Amino acid sequence: HPVAAIALRRRKDDMAPDDSAPSSITWQAMTGTAAAGTASRLLRSAAVRTRETLEFLSSRWKTKIETEFDERLYHAPVDTLISTAKNCSDEHDTQMIIAHNPGMAMLQEFFKISETAHMPTASVIMTRFKCQNWNKISLKNLVEAEIFKPRHLP
Questions:
Q1: Which residue in 2, 17, 88, 138 has its CB near the most CB atoms, within 10 A?
Q2: Would you give the DSSP letter of residue 141?
């Protein structure tokens, strides 16, 4: 079966992770999606804000997710984000990466989701690849790529 990756742009430090926040719908949607709930590996930058984002999300997930931090993910370019995903062990079908712009915005451009490099805070990119091994992911075997922005959710 194909492997899937979820890329999440961290929340702003001034964004309250509750129902009063304008993009709290995004957080509620992410905590309930099957993809987020079934990720077995999560990578995040070493930044405090990604730790806070992870703490907020994981407190709502039913299962524990293996978590690692990688200092290279802070303002990482696309090639670093892709190589980080490629280094995932094949025991994981789904992984999540929490990182920052400008790399996350460029990632949506790379996957041809959007022609503009704009990824608002709390946006999510979901990708699915038709391959069995993470080190084989590429544009050639990309099955689907979609971005979910706070304003697109009900």
A1: 88
A2: G
CA distance linking residue 128 with residue 138, whole number of Å: 10
Instruction: Confirm if 65 and 40 have CB atoms less than 8 A apart.
Output: yes
Burial class (CB in 10 A: 0-12, 13-18, 19+), 13: exposed
Q: How far apart are the C-alpha atoms of 153 and 24, rounded to whole Å?
A: 10
The bridge status of strand 124-129 relative to strand 142-148 is antiparallel
The answer to whether the bond into 22 is cis (omega within 30° of 0) is no
Give tens-digit pLDDT for 46-77.
888 888 878 877 777 777 788 898 999 998 99
What is the distance between the terminal CA atoms of the chain, rounded to a whole angstrom? 30
Between β-strands 3-9 and 94-99, what pairing exists: parallel, antiparallel or unpaired? parallel
CB-CB contact of 70 with 43 (8 Å):
yes
